[in-house]
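pipeline stage [seq->struct] | target=Malate dehydrogenase | organism=Flavivirga aquatica | residues=308
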Amino acid sequence: MKVTVVGAGAVGASCAEYIAIKDFASEVVLLDIKEGYAEGKAMDLMQTASLNGFDTKITGVTNDYSKTADSDICVITSGIPRKPGMTREELIGINAGIVKTVSSSLIEHSPNTIIIVVSNPMDTMTYLVHKSTDLPKNRIIGMGGALDSARFKYRLAEALGAPISDVDGMVIGGHSDKGMVPLIGKAVRNSVVVSEFLSEERMGQVVQDTKVGGATLTGLLGTSAWYAPGAAVSGMVQAIACDTKKIFPCSALLEGEFGLSDLSIGVPCILGANGIEKIVEISLSDAEKAKLAESAEGVKKTNGLLEL
Ligand SMILES: NC(=O)c1ccc[n+]([C@@H]2O[C@H](COP(=O)([O-])OP(=O)(O)OC[C@H]3O[C@@H](n4cnc5c(N)ncnc54)[C@H](O)[C@@H]3O)[C@@H](O)[C@H]2O)c1
Ligand SMILES: O=C(O)C[C@H](O)C(=O)O
């Protein structure tokens, strides 16, 4: 199993590290445009192998796509991150060009690959890869909901005073400060809906804290987060590599599912060897449907800025 990660910055290196630590891939290629940068990150990571106990071989390359040939899975993290006070949507001007060029170079050398898009604004960048390449739709997947759901579980555990392993919940919709739809009505503590434990007001706070999770970290760090994003990507890569058929909320191209079409947005998906094996059309309350529709409008507005 060969995995390429484009962008050896904060998120790309974190992805490579978590993939290696989980020890299911034979090879990870890190590629960056900055001379020597990916080589340096790969060497540093390889020097953790005997300490962390993995055999995955990590190599770094400067913009040489021939070294990525025949990758089973490619992750795109190249592009600029936001700074405090910015939205993810403001990154479109620079990142769209990067994502378009990178995806076409990857496919040239790995025509059968599955692509996971991370660069922001992620739903729009995922849609751009659908529109600008010939890959089938099950092989282009955006990562956002896996991260947002992890943040939702963190906030739920905090509100409940419970261990994180005791809570479950999912975030669907666009990966944006306003567009996320944390499904609070379906969130559970050990099978019991959280409304049994939390007031309406506290649940509203959990939802709001989840939606601005990325902005909160950007304010604290001066740039956006990388540990949880890297872990979220590695979980999706593992599900595909090991054909686990686990459900992750992913940005998938919709063609009528949930009453939506012609956009990529976060919905529950079964991930396996074929990438998105199935979009799971869970039933939503009227309020959840309305929020998802509003979120889709926001994503489509950003998609409208693309030069296709
Ligand atoms: N979808 C998500 O949940 C999620 C989570 C975190 C970050 N992100 C996004 O991921 C992206 C990367 O974030 P980061 O913190 O790692 O940024 P970073 O600046 O640390 O790293 C980005 C790397 O991309 C490289 N790069 C730029 N253009 C390139 C090109 N054409 N080819 C190859 N490499 C290129 C840069 O040299 C840099 O090393 C940002 O757009 C950020 O908003 C998304
Ligand atoms: O917040 C960001 O800009 C980066 C990423 O989308 C995140 O949610 O951490």
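stage status: PASS
auto-comment: The first helix runs from residue 10 to 22. The longest strand covers residues 261-272.
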